[in-house]
Amino acid sequence: QMKELMQHGAIEALTLRLTDHMLRVRVAAVAAIRGMVSAGGGPVCSTILSSGTVGMLVAQLQDSGPAGTAATVAQALENRDAMLDQLLVQVLLTLTMCCQSSGEAVEALTERPVLEACLGFLRLPDGGTAPVRAPLIEMMTLLLTLVEDNATAVAYLTEPAAAAPALIFVHLGQAPGAPPLLQALCASTVMSLVQQHPSIDPAAPLSQG
């Protein structure tokens, strides 16, 4: 059945829905893609990579990140459509499942701006960290999946332009209200970074640049 769906262009049809102006339609499309990844594994991930779907999924992250100071972002998050969080969760889970099913996906997502998009979501322009929200657990799960045994991801995250991601993860894990799972994900990500790049100092001052 999955093979038949693939042959009839189900992934491509769902990808077209990712540009729909209705948020509900985009959430349903990503959820369907996630279901296909879960059922089809590697072959479905290969189609997602070759069809440009993964780029569309990453674009959803880039378009949904917070902007402004901690105070203005907190207010915006309180007022925004909760379905946007549902969209982010579905996108992040889909990307994580692809990485867990395919080394090709890990390589592709490391080269794409997904790391930058995630860091942009976690760290605000004024140097603060994003308020603790449900999608942060899924986002840190994706980051941990990408960082583990991945020299390319670690190299990016240790560049000055990445703005001390280890400390960002530390601050996020220690944020008031951070659930235990988020704390564990942040700690595991920092540990993976330090193990692969011992010169990283999680206690270094957070760059404002």
Structure, described:
- It contains 13 helices and no strands.
- It has helices at residues 2-7, 10-16, 23-40, 42-51, 53-64, 70-79, 82-101, 103-111, 114-122, 135-147, 151-157, 165-173, 180-196.
- By secondary structure, the protein is mainly α.
- Mean pLDDT is 80; it is low at 68-73 and 205-209.
Short description:
With 209 residues, the chain is mostly helical.
How much strand content do the residues show? under 5%
SSE series: HHHHHHHHHHHHH
Counting DSSP H or I runs of 4 or more residues, the number of helices is 13
Count of DSSP E strands? 0
Indicate the structural class.
mainly alpha
Largest sheet: none
CA-based shape: globular
The Cα radius of gyration reads 17 Å
**pLDDT averaged over residues:** 80
Task: Identify low-pLDDT runs.
Answer: 68-73, 205-209
Ends apart, CA distance between termini: 51 Å
Helix content: over 70%
Q: What is the element layout, followed by pairings?
A:
Elements: H1 2-7, H2 10-16, H3 23-40, H4 42-51, H5 53-64, H6 70-79, H7 82-101, H8 103-111, H9 114-122, H10 135-147, H11 151-157, H12 165-173, H13 180-196
Helix pairs in contact: 3-7, 5-7, 5-9, 7-8, 7-10, 10-13, 12-13
